[in-house]
Amino acid sequence: MNNNVKTCKYSIITFLPLNILVQFSKMANFYFLLLCLLELYPPVKSPGGFTSMLMPLLFVIGVSMVKDIFEDRKRYLSD
Questions:
Q1: 77-22-14 Cα angle (round to 5)
Q2: What is the sign, positive or negative, of the torsion defined by CA atoms of 24, 14, 50, 55?
Q3: What's the rounded Cα separation, in Å, for the pair 10 and 73?
Q4: pLDDT tens column, 29-65
Q5: pLDDT of residue 13
Q6: How many angstroms separate the CA atoms of 74 and 59, rounded?
């Protein structure tokens, strides 16, 4: 019988899919993803284009992912 307590959220295999799910469950990230997808529809297209919407979204999600990696690593080391 093993009595270990595991507080970390992710493993190496599950980090990317679970973290993307967590990131897009936040309403602001989902909203900007929806705006990026609308940029692909020609009648709604804005002069800035798809990349002007996508780059800030990827930056915010990337920073959040790096933060989650460090937090989960701290949890793993404290276990």
A1: 55
A2: positive
A3: 9
A4: 999 999 888 888 888 787 877 888 889 999 999 999 9
A5: 92
A6: 23
The per-residue pLDDT for 31 is: 94
Contact 42, 11 (CB under 8 A): no
What is the pTM for the complete model shown? Answer: 0.79
pLDDT over 80 at 14, yes or no: yes
> What does each C-alpha distance from 77 to 6, 15, 45, 51, 72 come to in angstroms?
10, 16, 47, 38, 9
Distance CA 11, CA 43 (A): 42
The answer to whether the CB of 72 falls within 8 A of the CB of 8 is: yes
Would you say 64 and 21 are in contact if contact means Cβ atoms under 8 Å apart?
no
CA angle 15/76/5 to nearest 5° reads 105
Eight-state DSSP code of residue 44: G
